[in-house]
Amino acid sequence: MNDRRILVIAGPTAVGKTEYAIEAAKAFNGEIVSCDSMQLYQYMDIGSAKPTAAERAEAVHHLIDFLNPREEFSVARYQKLAREAIDDILSRGKLPVISGGTGLYLNSILYDMDFADASGDEKLRETLRKVAEEEGSEALHSQLAEMDPEAAARIHPNNTKKIIRAIERLQAGEGRVRPFDSSISENKDYDPLLVCLTRNREELYDRINRRVDALIEAGLVEEVRSLMDMGLTADDISMKGIGYKEIIAYLEGETTLDEAIDLIKKNTRHYAKRQLTWFRRYDKINVVNLSEYLSEEEAKRGLIGWLEKKL
């Protein structure tokens, strides 16, 4: 294995990334670097489907459970921390295994992205912020979808700052906001092997629905109530994640619990679809359909065998 090699295990939510990343880390003397925008928060264990203590005991995990949910966090900061973790793992002769489903975070590892703020039109920016405050980030996301469907497919509806920046560029006549345009070049520091895990749609959606039921059973409502008792509200970025915002609405009397659960399932399915759209845009991605195997154990053996040839 060369000293720049990194393994990326990407894919939609509930596909099984954590389980397979751990298998890869164990098989190839690796350590896992989380690429998940929710699992980095402390106190948010259930809704983020964070690796359990037992799973973390099987392989070293980085960038999990370290950030106060009140704290601001940016892609630029993630990039710095992730690359520091990767460089540390490589320096010790181990394999960095990047695992997660947050596409923009993965981009920040694989590409030399410019995080400088666009100058923009402050009046327009303030107008867009008000829309987000009064109507929600989803309303802004719908506006972006009408202007540039491809950009909307790449940007999470909760990422208000990114949505506003994209709309600003479009309004300024700078053209469509592309994921890998001429201003974004590959990061030559690493030699990535990209794997996108997927499953047949029916199986993936069933796994999503069952996971949501399991999160509720594990105490998601109590977790959200505890976070609200700490002073966190729907306005905090950390609480805008799927699973948290819907339970907040329930706890504030806006919906029933059954309605909140159904909405979590629906929003998670939609998110999974967006994730797959994002990852399939990578030219060098290797898509592995886990539904084609007879069992999870066979799938693990198949993936590890394939990785042995590639790594």
Helix count equals 13
In round numbers, the mean pLDDT is: 89
Question: Structural class given helices, strands, pairing?
Answer: alpha/beta
Helix content: 40-55%
* Alpha carbon gyration radius: 19 Å
Terminal Cα span: 6 Å
What summary fits the major beta sheet?
6 strands, parallel
Shape: globular
Share of β-strand residues: 5-15%
The sequence of SSEs as H and E is EHEHEHEHEHHHHEEHHHHEH
Low-confidence stretches: 174-183
User: Widest sheet: strand order?
Assistant: 3-2-4-1-7-8
The number of E-state strands comes to 8
How would you sum up this structure, described in words?
- With 311 residues, the chain is an alpha/beta fold.
- Helix content is 51%, strand content 11%.
- It is built from 13 helices and 8 strands.
- The chain has helices spanning 17-27, 53-58, 75-91, 103-110, 122-135, 137-147, 149-154, 160-171, 201-218, 220-229, 244-251, 257-279, 296-310, and strands at 5-10, 30-34, 61-62, 95-99, 111-112, 185-186, 191-198, 285-289.
- It has a 6-stranded parallel β-sheet, sandwiched between helices.
- Helix 1 (17-27) crosses helix 13 (296-310).
- The longest helix is centred in the last third of the chain and has 23 residues, at 257-279.
- The radius of gyration is 19 Å and the shape is globular.
- It starts with a strand and ends with a helix.
- The model is unreliable at 174-183 (pLDDT under 50).
